[in-house]
Design goal:
Structural class: alpha/beta
Largest sheet: 9 strands, mixed
Bound molecules: adenosine-5'-diphosphate, alpha-D-glucopyranose
Radius of gyration: 23 Å
CATH topology of the largest domain: Rossmann fold
CATH superfamily of the largest domain: Glycogen Phosphorylase B
CATH architecture of the largest domain: 3-Layer(aba) Sandwich
Number of helices: 18
Number of strands: 18
Shape: globular
Strand content: 15-25%
């Protein structure tokens, strides 16, 4: 079975969050099951530099609207996955991240940039394609490729079926009415049953509306988004499509995220030889300018600093946390306000609180390994990957019971299976109580080792999820 996996980010080259990690590891897991999966991704500078010999294989033209004619180049990722690089330098050869310019504002032509990505995904899945390789399935991800499902729907001669995977309902890809024409979509698409969303064109809604099937990245999130409280304006549509909607829990790249081989760590370790974890804690304390204290629990955070992640709640209780006492290491980037507030917290509580503003892959690994507890008080969390890394690194996660966090973390009160700490209400009080519970537990070595053992034994590989995706493709 041939599958085109369309994505706007791809680890390890271009990453702003979990989507990049998934796109960078799920295709290889599907290929291991015998599928012919190829990944379509914009040819950002990082990719062109890594694959200078990428070979031109097509020039998709006549795409409609104001869409230009790009070049498609093919390269082979180190894991054996063929990459189709969508090269159009005027759109993709830019500084900053895929969505924002250096000043942190959305690029003004994002509808055209990701419209082109979507349109080329549909082109590859249609008879217009000049490639011999014809996918049976176009697998789109999030709003950036959501429009591919609409293009396929409105093409006169449709070929491929489409699957739309929702990684986050909060990013809806909203653009004004004029973009309908610029993107070459037919007037009939401008309807409530089409891509129109409260006077805007929504790429996300397009995917949800027109894909042959929809999946999201955890079973609990699949339920939550069908409720008005958590459906972010799409609940009605999602309820209508409930029969076509499933939740498949993400896996992780278990070769990159493996404490036994991780070259970012000060010392590797494993469930059978856990000693190295203490070295990682001590060295991390030194690296971050924290007091070198074995006798204090060190809490870790690696996160986008946004409303979603609930780190404003942690900010509120941090001063009380330091009195318990405990240390805190935060790594993140995001909203200006949260960045400033966390930087200030780091300055006020120097020695106990280390705040690093930035995106730092290596430090993320060292925090996973060096922290005692990993904190994720998310307001909502479609899946969440960091709690999966934490479990594997013997760093029990403390999470709010939502989305994929609820599906993967089991509270310590469950003696047989407990692997972390779970709290309910999204309030500072509830978070503080959970933190107190975790710190008390940390002072009980026997209980702590049990939690770590349960977490480290969890199978977070892609095997099960890949099997479920294959089933879904086959149904389509
Ligand atoms: P989301 O995609 O919502 O941001 P996930 O938990 O699915 O959340 O994935 C986030 C990914 O991005 C993880 O791999 C995490 O380690 C990484 N990450 C987030 N912020 C940073 C940062 N500041 N530095 C390094 N890695 C980060
Ligand atoms: C999104 C979600 C996150 C999920 C990731 C990968 O960014 O916020 O919870 O893990 O996508 O699916």
């Amino acid at each position: 079975m041939k599958v085109l996996y369309a994505t706007s980010e791809l680890a390890p080259w271009v990453k702003t969050g979990g989507l990049a990690e998934v796109a960078g590891s799920l295709p290889a897991a599907l290929r291991a099951l015998g599928l012919d999966v190829r990944v379509l991704v914009p040819a950002y500078p990082e990719l062109l530099q890594s694959f200078p010999d990428a070979e031109e294989i097509a020039r998709p033209g006549g795409l409609g609207g104001l869409l230009p004619t790009p070049t498609l180049k093919q390269a082979l990722a180190p894991d054996g996955t063929p990459l189709l690089l969508l090269d159009y330098p005027h759109y993709f050869d830019r500084p900053g991240n895929p969505y924002l310019g250096p000043e942190g504002r959305d690029w003004l032509d994002n509808h055209l940039r990701f419209g082109l990505l979507s349109r080329v995904a549909a082109w590859l899945g249609s008879e217009a394609s000049t490639l011999a390789w014809q996918p049976a399935i176009v697998h789109c991800n999030d709003w950036q490729t959501g429009l591919a499902a609409s293009y396929l729907r409105y093409l006169p001669r449709q070929r491929a079926k489409s699957l739309f995977t929702l990684h986050n309902l909060a990013f809806q890809g909203l653009f004004d009415h004029a973009s309908l024409f610029e993107l070459g979509l037919p007037d009939e698409a401008w309807r409530i049953e089409g891509v129109e969303y409260y006077g805007y064109l929504s790429f996300l809604k397009a995917g949800l509306q027109h894909a042959d099937a929809i999946s999201t990245v955890s079973p609990t999130y699949a339920m939550e988004i069908q409720t008005d409280a958590e459906g972010m304006g799409m609940a009605g549509l999602l309820r209508r499509r409930a029969a076509d909607l499933s939740g498949i829990l993400n896996g992780i790249d278990t070769t990159i995220w493996n404490p036994a081989t991780d070259h970012h760590l000060y010392r590797t370790y494993s469930a059978r030889r856990p000693d190295g974890k203490a070295t990682n804690k001590a060295e991390l304390q030194v690296e971050l300018g924290l007091e070198k204290r074995e006798d204090l629990p060190l809490l870790g955070v690696v996160s986008r600093l946004t409303e979603q992640k609930g780190l404003d709640l942690l900010l509120e209780v941090a001063p009380q946390l330091f009195k318990l006492p405990a240390q805190l290491a935060v790594l993140g980037t995001g909203s200006h306000e949260l960045e400033m507030a966390w930087a200030k917290m780091g300055r006020t509580h120097r020695g106990q609180c280390a705040v690093t503003l930035g995106f730092d892959e290596a430090l993320a690994h060292r925090i996973e390994a060096g922290a005692d507890v990993f904190v994720m008080p998310s307001r909502f969390e479609p899946c969440g990957l960091n709690q999966l890394y934490s479990l594997r690194y013997g760093t029990p996660p403390l999470v709010r019971a939502t989305g994929g966090l609820a599906d993967t973390v089991i509270d310590a009160t469950d003696e047989k299976r407990g692997n972390g700490f779970v709290f309910g209400p999204a309030t500072a009080d509830a978070l503080l109580q959970a933190l107190q519970r975790a710190i008390t537990a940390w002072h009980d070595p026997k209980l702590w080792r049990r939690l770590q053992k349960h977490g480290m034994a969890r199978d977070s590989s892609w095997a099960e999820a890949a099997r479920q995706y294959v089933e879904l493709y086959q149904r389509l």
